[in-house]
Amino acid sequence: MSFKSLVAALSLISAAAHAGDFKAAYVDIQRAVQEVDEGKVAKAKLQSVADAKQKAFEKEQNTIKAELEAYQRQKPTMDDKVSAAKETELQKKMFDFQQKAEKLRGELAEMERKELGTIFPKLEQLLGQIAQREGLTMVFDRSSSGLAWAPTSLDLTNELIRMYNGQFKAGGAGGAAKKDDSKKEESKKP
To answer: In which band, very low, low, confident or very high, does the pLDDT at 14 lie, cut at 50, 70 and 90?
Structure first.
């Protein structure tokens, strides 16, 4: 949170407190994303993909390392031109490997953003419902706002997680699917 944002937030808090209507709480959005069922499923999927890519990555790394060690052992007996060519080849392989590593990190970060990105809007919607129901003026995000301390009684994270899991199925199906299922059940009743 920037200094200007902090000053603006403090001004709002001060104005609301003087009006007597100020009521605040906080939530840890990052923890909520990690703990909702849909987030756990997404994290497991991401971990599975990352583990598979990591194994392939380590195999390639070990191959390059073995080539480098073999080169180091053979270098004293090599012709200068052959040695220089092999060194250039190994440097190119290491550079390409580093580029792959960077690309892999980017791909994994993008996958995480896509997998978890659908969760944030749903959390925000539910948090708005909680805030309205409780008559809250502000809800702070403990994971990003720099909230240093607040009593645990003001923490809405567990309630947010329970609401999310109750309304949205893990695996991407939303509350609409649950409502459709309940209508089907009602139509089956005699």
So the answer is: low
Of the candidates 147, 174, 137, the one whose C-alpha atom is nearest the C-alpha of residue 31 is 147
The phi-psi region of residue 135 (left if phi > 0; otherwise alpha if psi is between -120 and 50; otherwise beta) is: left
How many Cβ atoms are within 10 Å of 38's Cβ, its own excluded? 22
Threshold 0.70, pTM exceeds: no
**Cβ distance 178 to 169 under 8 Å?**
yes
Q: Which two tokens stand for residue 190?
A: 């005699």
Ordered DSSP codes for 46-69: HHHHHHHHHHHHHHHHHHHHHHHH
Cα–Cα distance measured from residue 121 to residue 103, given in angstroms and rounded to the nearest whole number: 28
